[in-house]
Amino acid sequence: MSQDAHGFSEAGLGPPTADFDAARLSQGSDAPARYRFVEPDGSYDPEAVPDFAVEELRDIYYWLLLQRRFDERMVKLQRRGEMGTVATARGQEASVVGVSFGLEQRDWLLPYGREPAALIRHGVSMRDIILYWLGVMDANRLPDSNSLPYAIAIGTHVPVGVGYAWGLSMDDEDAVVTMMMGDGQFSTGEAQTAMNVAGVVDAPAVFFALNNQYAISLPFSGQTAANSVAQKALAWGLDGIRVDGNDVLAVVDAMRRARRRARQGTPVLLEAVTYRLEAHTTNDDPSRYRDDAEVDWWRERDPMDRFRSFLESEGVWADIDEDGMREEIDERFDRAREEVAAYESGGIEELFEYVYDEMTPALRDQLADLEAVLEERPDAAEYIEERPKG
To answer: Is the pLDDT of residue 381 over 50?
Structure first.
């Protein structure tokens, strides 16, 4: 289209049409395709699967097993009264582990609550994850890792992640920020606003949506009228990718592609279609809002069973010592528990020390005032509730 004397043109506005249907946007009746290599029964097209080194395949299985075993041990502790509320990822292991294998160590990972394996691979200690679920504030410091604490308040970590990604871009850092999100987070204003900003500033960000079909008790169909999470990317000018979240190899490959795309200046919304086989948390009773037939259908699509079938077909499984892996993981967990038991919580100063990187003058004054009160009235300490470990 021609420009006027000032250089303006309708070219960027889209072609005009008198056909109403041509100007109407509709999502259609079917959900977008899911990127997948390995079928639920373990079959696959060898020509379609990317090349993975045998050692990497073994490593992937180890971390799938660690994610599941960690969840099992944590739930047992909770049932014995030694742990607070716990959120597990049974049935979603391929999505959690797949993300971690698609990232570089220099990248940043912002979790939302179900990804211990990904965090541990990214430098977070198992001790700190256990301490977190015990309510110990010190566990949120996460030294020696490019990770931030769990974001239990829905969607609140997304603006933080986008801002950090934007900063990485300004500093020309070769890194991306990946934000883990449940499907319910896309109903929050924080998440939607942040993703819109990411598209505007070309932030090197990946929004990884674990669509496990439920936001606590609300099914995905009650969360949105959209056929998928991934299609929402178009509204914010992002790339959208939809992957079978129970096919770990597809998740790894999709995440690596998403990372490259984000580094090139286009943020990516990557939806992993999976299922939460267990409760939302150990305080939840899923039998009140879903039936056993649904759970059984998804159980037949267990990501670990699927990957094991692939490894057997590739001749790799024979060299994997699953019992040895499980024993090693249990030993790691036991050592972490010993470190948790040895942890000594601090005093009232912890209320002020971890608000910012350094205490502000106002916080120092508040701490001094509280210490003065306690020195004058030692009995007041009885009214300070110290959260117990467990």
So the answer is: yes
User: In the chain, which ranges are continuous DSSP H helix?
Assistant: 20-23, 54-79, 93-101, 116-121, 126-133, 157-170, 189-201, 220-223, 248-263, 292-299, 303-313, 322-342, 350-353, 361-376
Spatial separation of the C-alpha atoms in residues 111 and 119, rounded to whole Å: 8
Which of 127, 109, 131 has its CA nearest to residue 118?
109
Sorted by where each begins, the domain ranges of the chain are 54-342, 350-383
DSSP state of 273: E
Mean pLDDT of 330-340: 97
- Average pLDDT rounded to a whole number, residues 318-331: 97
Going by their DSSP bridges, the two strands 218-219 and 214-215 should be labelled as antiparallel
Architecture of domain 54-342: 3-Layer(aba) Sandwich (3.40)
Strand partners, 210: 182, 272
Give the length of the chain.
390
- Closest alpha carbon to 116 in 101, 136, 130: 130
Cβ neighbors of 147 (< 8 A, separation 6 or more) are 108, 109, 110, 111, 119, 122, 123, 124
User: Which three-class secondary structure state does DSSP give residue 193?
Assistant: helix
Which amino acid does the sequence have at 139? A
Is the torsion defined by CA of 272, 277, 281, 286 positive or negative?
positive
**What is the C-alpha R_g of the chain?**
24
pLDDT digits (tens, 9 = 90+) for 187-213: 899 999 999 999 999 999 999 999 999
Q: Looking at the predicted structure, is the pLDDT value of residue 281 above 80?
A: yes
d(Cα 369, Cα 350) in Å, to the nearest integer? 15
CA atoms within 13 Å, Cβ hemisphere of 111: 27
The b-or-e profile of 91-129 (16+ CB within 10 A means b, else e) is bbbbbbbbbbbbbeeebbbbbbbbbbbbbbbbebbbbbb
Q: Token digits for 43?
A: 């079959």
CB 191 within 8 A of CB 153: no
Mean pLDDT for the stretch of residues 322-338: 98
* pLDDT for the residue 385: 61
Say yes or no to pLDDT of 14 above 90: no
